[in-house]
DNA sequence: GGGGTTATTTACCGCTAAGTACAGATATCT
DNA sequence: AGATATCTGTACTTAGCGGTAAATAACCCC
């Protein structure tokens, strides 16, 4: 699934790669947040002019939403793949270690754009704030459903509160995003992940 | 220590209460973040005009910093008081339950302004971003020092990694701020607090 | 090569941002 | 009362915002 408009056969061809430009936009939104990013920031980083941006991506808001889609579909994304692990404990393990690795990775801005892209923001950003909030909540619901399944599978005790367990894990993951912004290293986050797993119920 | 300029004896007296106005400003910054808050938002909420704001508080940046000082000195603040508890476990307990209570309190915006006031932001907000980051890191250092003392006191095992423990707790607390923004209730956060404490080392 | 189509460039729009000059209002001090 | 000091309200400045109109350039199809 291509996140950007596909190139038509007729007319002057686009002088930039839309996917690359979107990556650049994501980087800016990630570092500065939606409110803190201006169109000048974007066009400069993307290497295009404003009319090109508007023709290719609609407007600032739609550009942001497409950048988030890209963010979540990237190969280095760790959340959804972790859900596929065979046991609840392994799901948590992969998610926490994946987050530790990813969120402090110096190859891109620290933290998580879904957490920090529009946390507290102006009314103009209400739509994107809601979109991000939705993704955070949905992620936790998927985690909850995965833990319910784990109870059926028998790799979580039957009396486990799956919702609270998912919320606990979500809390730590989101906290790790802040920690990465605070300057914590991957190794330091890995230690936090390890400690987090100590509160995790084991197969009884 | 008064956070605002003290009233002089001569000249026309101020028509508003500076402390009350600062509370209003804090509320706006808390909900909208530094970048998302305009001077119009502020003057409207504070019930004063721009020249009064500038005369009393300097500028937007200084107003923000004063609002943060007020935030941390408020009676409902839970972080510093928790450090005074007799044992490391009680420190963690009071901090986590205090956060659960406070961050989802409907009497004010959700979450924590130190976390969400300027997480990802424009270059214009670099100073306030650094100030908030500093406070988060300092809080964790105080926590770490408290846990080191606990090892001396004997209410934490001697082989405890105080730094990691403090970072783990900081991670959960900061994660709870995001959770509160996600709409989590105090009761739901309390459950997360409970689970967090299960990873906490007990007196051996 | 010409017509149709799309992208790029430059210049601009209306609006709001943060911050301030200045005149008038209201207090204290002598 | 008068002088002095401070605050308030209106109106303003400069700069940047998100977004767009219109002319020009580059491509495909016939």
Textual characterization of the structure:
Two copies of one chain form a homodimer. With 204 residues, the first copy, chain A, is mainly α. Chain A is 66% helix and 0% strand. Chain A has ten helices and no strands. Chain A has helices spanning 18-36, 39-46, 50-57, 60-73, 79-83, 88-103, 113-116, 126-153, 162-182, 186-197. The longest helix of chain A has 28 residues, at 126-153. Chain A is elongated, with a radius of gyration of 19 Å. The termini of chain A are far apart. Chains A and B meet through helix 1, helix 7, helix 8, helix 9 and helix 10 of A and helix 1, helix 7, helix 8, helix 9 and helix 10 of B. Chain A binds a DNA duplex (30 and 30 nucleotides) through helix 3.
Summarize the structure.
Chain A is mostly helical. Chain A has ten helices and no strands.
List the helices and strands and how they pair.
Two copies of one chain form a homodimer.
Chain A: H1 18-36, H2 39-46, H3 50-57, H4 60-73, H5 79-83, H6 88-103, H7 113-116, H8 126-153, H9 162-182, H10 186-197
Chain A binds a DNA duplex (30 and 30 nucleotides) through residues 8-15, 38-40, 48-52, 54-56, 59-60, 124.
Helix/strand order of chain A: HHHHHHHHHH
Number of helices of chain A: 10
How far from one another are the termini of chain A? 42 Å
Oligomer: homodimer
The number of strands of chain A is: 0
Pick out the low-confidence regions of chain A: 1-6
Average per-residue pLDDT of chain A, rounded, comes to 94
How much β-strand is present in the residues of chain A?
under 5%
Report the sheet with the most strands of chain A, covering strand number, pairing sense and barrel closure: none
Structural class of chain A: mainly alpha
Shape designation of chain A: elongated
The residue fraction in helices of chain A comes out at: 55-70%
Rg of chain A, alpha carbons:
19 Å
């Amino acid at each position: 699934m291509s996140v950007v408009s596909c190139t038509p056969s007729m007319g002057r061809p686009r002088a930039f790669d839309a996917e690359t430009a979107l990556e650049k936009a994501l980087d800016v939104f990630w570092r500065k947040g939606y409110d803190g990013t201006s169109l000048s920031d974007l066009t400069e980083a993307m290497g295009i002019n404003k009319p090109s941006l508007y023709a290719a991506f609609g407007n600032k808001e739609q550009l942001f939403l497409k950048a988030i889609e890209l963010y979540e579909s990237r190969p280095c994304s760790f959340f959804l793949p972790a859900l596929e692990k065979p046991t609840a404990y392994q799901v948590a393990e992969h998610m926490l270690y994946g987050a530790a690795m990813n969120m402090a990775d110096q190859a891109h801005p620290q933290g998580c754009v879904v957490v920090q892209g529009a946390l507290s923001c102006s009314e103009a950003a209400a739509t994107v704030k809601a979109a991000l909030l939705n993704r955070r909540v949905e992620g936790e619901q998927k985690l909850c459903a995965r833990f319910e399944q784990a109870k059926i599978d028998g790799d979580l005790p039957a009396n486990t509160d799956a919702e609270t367990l998912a919320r606990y894990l979500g809390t730590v993951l989101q906290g790790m995003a802040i920690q990465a912004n605070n300057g914590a290293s991957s190794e330091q986050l890995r230690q936090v992940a390890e400690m987090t797993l100590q509160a995790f119920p084991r197969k009884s």
